[in-house]
Design brief:
2 copies of one chain form a homodimer. Chain A is an alpha+beta fold. Chain A has one domain: CBS-domain, CATH 3.10.580. Chain A is about 40% helix and about 20% strand. Chains A, B: This is Transcriptional regulator.
């Protein structure tokens, strides 16, 4: 039988070129604007902000945009089914805190960001850079979410150049 | 200057082969199990089910798995910030109802499912087939979410064959 070398060659070529492409595509070129609140925000106001900004995750920052927490819809729902009055509690009691937050930088590849979203089981990752004013702290400069990845997936399927 | 024909050829080849691959990959091979509740479930119990099953969206069904609604974390949070007592209201007051629900079938391509997730601005799509018992109704047989797409994106980046 005729060996289907050409067929397999094209297949492997395609998938390795595609893998390389995803590793070369950086978060800096695909990230969205981060939506931030501060720690004193009430759970009620944070929920309203999520609706107004149409996001599922808020990043919690201190002065100069230093990342100190992440708040998801899941965190807020957990409060809501408790005895908690959403208008009376600050989000600091419900958020995930630094250093327990998974982050990426603008130089992280889109492939690694996708992998981290799956591994960490979160919908959204803060994009951070080292703070210029606060030593050892991180400033939030963007967000990468499962929506970012899904949108890119569709663009790739449309055969657009990345 | 030497024309970089080979370079561009490989690029276009790659992206069109990739696009074709996404169009040939079907929802049937990538869908997850649907998590369903019925219309009389309270908002409180639905929230608990979301936590126990670790999903962000529930499908609401009548007998024999007929799809009648979709309930997201967002729908529940909207209730929570209202005056609503989550233990006292059925989810039927908060869910999106048929026929206003975006669905896919097992034969839908993964590419089209990704496109619909972005276009419809939802996190999860019910996978449905025509009901054998109820004429003109749809039975839920799976779910496709932004997590499904993100996971596939990472697999493709690992250069696995699809």
């Amino acid at each position: 039988a005729r060996p289907r070398v050409g067929y397999f060659y094209v297949g492997n070529q395609t998938s390795s070129v595609f893998g390389e492409l995803l590793r070369k595509s950086l978060v800096r070129d695909y990230k969205s604007v981060p939506i931030v609140v501060n720690e004193q925000t009430t759970a009620y106001d944070a929920t309203v902000t999520m609706f107004l900004e149409d996001v599922g995750t808020l990043f919690v920052v201190r002065d100069a945009g230093i990342l100190c927490g992440v708040l998801s819809r899941k965190d807020l729902l957990k409060l809501a089914i408790g005895q908690t009055a959403l208008k009376e509690v600050p989000i600091s009691i419900a958020m995930t805190r630094m250093p327990n937050i998974y982050t990426v930088t603008p130089e992280t590849s889109i492939y690694d960001a996708g992998k981290l979203l799956i591994h960490a089981q979160v919908d959204s990752l803060p994009v951070v850079v080292p703070s210029e004013s606060a030593n050892g702290q991180w400033e939030v400069v963007g967000r990468v979410t499962k929506t970012t990845i899904t949108r890119l997936f569709v663009e790739l399927g449309e055969s657009k150049q990345v």
